[in-house]
Amino acid sequence: MSTIKRRIILALVVALTMSVSGCGTNNAAKSVTVNSGTVKSTKTVDGFGVVKAVDIKNITVDFPAAVKTIDVVEGQKVKNQDSLVTLNLTEFEDQIKSKEMSISSESHDIEEIQNDYLNTSNAPDLQKLLNDLKNAQDLYNQVQSEYAAQQTLFKSGGISKYDLDQSKKTVDAKRNDVEDIKSSIDTLKYEKQQTVDSKKSDLAILESDLAAMKDKLNKSYIKGSDIISNVNHGIVYDIGYVPGDIVSSDKKVLSLLNLDSLIVEANIPEEFIKSVKMSADVDIIPQADKSKTIKGKVIRISDKAVVNNGETDVPVDISFNNSDGFLLPGFNVDVKINQ
């Protein structure tokens, strides 16, 4: 219905209401006596609206997958846990397994290095250095004893100062051999510790990546390889794929309208909005069946007007009880808002 026609009808309704209630009356309900009974006449603000869902879920997939089957059709009603789409997750599952294998390998390497170099001394190269150290220490101890004997001989004049100095040089050389091997052992352990620290850092990244990959599957609308409904009462629309398509994170798979979140969005002409109050009772009359009247309440009056076809309206949201499921998204309705 055009805006101009709607304005004319609204003006006629208001004029008719004023003629019934009489000149100089206020907006309160009026009683008119008919014979011996009393008929209560309540003023209303009439308008037009559309049924809309507040909760719309756009289902997306942000991991490698292909569409195996589409298990619903456009506009189909679904309930919680119903299968919507079946995916082929082979590629993503292989990526997860590869990441798990990398984690296992890094963990094994860390444990092996720690056991062979840091906690114990089982590694062959470390064992060789330790053996070399023992031999060098033994030689050092031996030349130290010989040098002590040489000092005694020197004091008694048994050897020359040159011979004593040569003995001292041998002692210094063997001591340096011991220190060099100790330094090699320390360097080897330090390098192995650095390797462990680096691998632990790599391991933390791998574990974080794996957790993020698995978290992508941990969504209320994913169950195994199926995309399922995560609303109790929904309608499928805007299916974006067909079987065989590769899913892209930039394009939603489909959308779900939550039928438990339906409201009526009515546009009320600006000249009548002052008579609309929050929580006001509303009669909703579907265009699909004008014999039905569904009760509702005003739950929001927009703080911003909109212009439709040159006319200024104020959006008003109306909640209602849709227990029989008659009202569907997109239905046009007439509304009568009690003043």
TrEMBL record:
Domain of life: Bacteria
Keywords per UniProt: Coiled coil, Signal
Listed name of the protein: Multidrug resistance efflux pump
Signal sequence interval, chain numbering: 1-22
Membrane-spanning ranges: none
Organism: Desulfosporosinus acidiphilus (strain DSM 22704 / JCM 16185 / SJ4)
GO cellular component terms given for this protein: efflux pump complex
Presence of keyword Coiled coil: yes
GO molecular function: efflux transmembrane transporter activity
